[in-house]
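Open question from group meeting: does this chain pack into something compact, or does most of it stay loose? Before anyone orders reagents, we agreed to write out a predicted structure and look at it together. Recording both the input and the output here so the notebook holds the full record.
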Amino acid sequence: GTDHDEETPLLLLCRLENIGLDDTAKARLVLASQSPRRREILDMMMLQGKYTVETPPLDEGKAQRDLSVSAISPEEYTRKLAEAKAFSLAESHRDEKNVGDKPTANIPVFYLGSDTIVEIDNKILEKPKDLEDAKTMLSLMSGRQHHVHTGVALFKLMGHEITLISSFTDTATVTFCNLSKETINAYVAT
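C-alpha cells returned:
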C-alpha cells in the first residue's frame, strides 16, 4: 500500500520523470481532467507532448455527495475525489482494453487525477454554481483566511490490473484582503 501521509509533490514529480514517458512504447500518461491549469502545470514540469488529456467518466456530483456524507477531513475528501477521477478513467480503459488506438497489455498507462477545493470555517466550498454563488463565496472569503486543498492521485494500468501508485493532498493557506462589492462584481464579470 501507499503511505498517503509520506507522499509529496516533489516525489510525484520524480516518479513521473522516471516512468519512461519519452517513449510511448514504454509508458503513457493520461491526465484525467479537462482543466487548462492542470495541463499548464504538467507542461511546466517539462511533460509537454508526453501525455494525453481525457475527461474521466466519473459522475462528479454523485462522488461529491457520497464523500460529503462520510466523516472525513477536507484534505481526505479532496484526495479521494482525485483518486476517483483517475481510477474511473483507468477502469474505463481497462474495460475497453485499449487507450486510444494503443493496446495496454504490455505498456503501462498512468492516470493522473486531481481536484481542488476551498475550505473555510471547516466547510468545503465547491465550484460556484452560478455568478451569484461566486459572489457569495468571495464575500465569505473577503478579509479572511481560508485553505485551498489540492488532491492528486496517480494510478497505473498494466494489462487488467489497476494499481494506486501515489496520492496526497497539498494545502495552501490564503488570506484575502477586504473585497468591496464593486471589486467582487468586477471579478465575477471576468
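Observations to bring back to the group:
DSSP finds six helices and eight strands in the chain.
Residues 1-7 have pLDDT under 50 and may be disordered.
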